[in-house]
Amino acid sequence: MTRFDFTPYRRSTVGFDRLFDVLENHARATAPGDNYPPFNIERRGEDAYRITLAVAGFKSADIDITAQQNLLVVQGRKPEEAAQGAGEFLHVGIAQRGFERRFELADFVRVANAALEDGLLVIDLLREVPDAMKPRKITIGAPTPLEVVQSGDTSQAA
Questions:
Q1: Do 72 and 7 fall within a single domain?
Q2: Which residues contact 109 (CB under 8 A, 6 or more apart)?
Q3: How many domains is the chain built from?
Q4: What does the radius of gyration of the chain's CA atoms come to, in whole angstroms?
Q5: 13 and 48 fall within a common domain
Q6: In this structure, are 44 and 77 located in the same domain?
């Protein structure tokens, strides 16, 4: 297993501590053989993403999707009676085991939609940065203090 040391980067960055913690935790949590179910992460626009998981054999009632702050958890559990088949399997190549996948989400990312079709679970994500957090232009040497005007306020103080 490859281990990365982020110490030199921590000294030269400001505010990226969480990013390095996520990378280190992911490196620790990702063990060989922990690749079920397979998934894709796709960027569909500047602020739109899609996670697709291959969950063949699972119904929508068997899957739980939980979105918390900066964390998306997808769990699949098969009912007990479904695990017991009518016959004796000679070869089992289709995984029927339960799973849990965790995805670290960036700030202001929310789940927009989830759908299960043809054995693929598709989760659409949107990043919605509040206006207060968006970049703004700072004027150097402004003669008067900057005035804050609310978006719904049409009158301005003189």
A1: no
A2: 49, 70, 125, 126, 127, 128
A3: 2
A4: 23
A5: no
A6: yes
**Residue-wise pLDDT tens digits, 2-52:** 566 656 655 555 555 556 566 666 655 555 556 889 999 999 988 899 999
Instruction: Retrieve residue 67's tokens.
Output: 């979105």
Quick check: 8 and 16 in contact, CB under 8 A?
Answer: no
Distance separating alpha carbons of residues 132 and 118, to the nearest angstrom: 41
What is the span of the domain harbouring residue 5? 1-34
Give the model confidence (pLDDT) of 20-33 as tens digits.
566 666 655 555 55
For residue 150, tell me if it sits in a domain.
Answer: no
**Helix (H) or strand (E) run with residue 82 in it:** helix 80-83
Assign 3-class secondary structure to 46-80: CCEEEEEEECCCCCHHHEEEEEECCEEEEEECCCH
Task: Please report, rounded to a whole number, the percentage of residues in the chain having pLDDT higher than 70.
Answer: 64
**In Å, what is the CA distance from 133 to each residue of 125, 149, 156?**
19, 16, 23
Question: Which residues are CB-contacts of 66 (< 8 A; sequence separation ≥ 6)?
Answer: 72, 73, 74, 75
* Rounded CA separation 99/37 (Å): 7
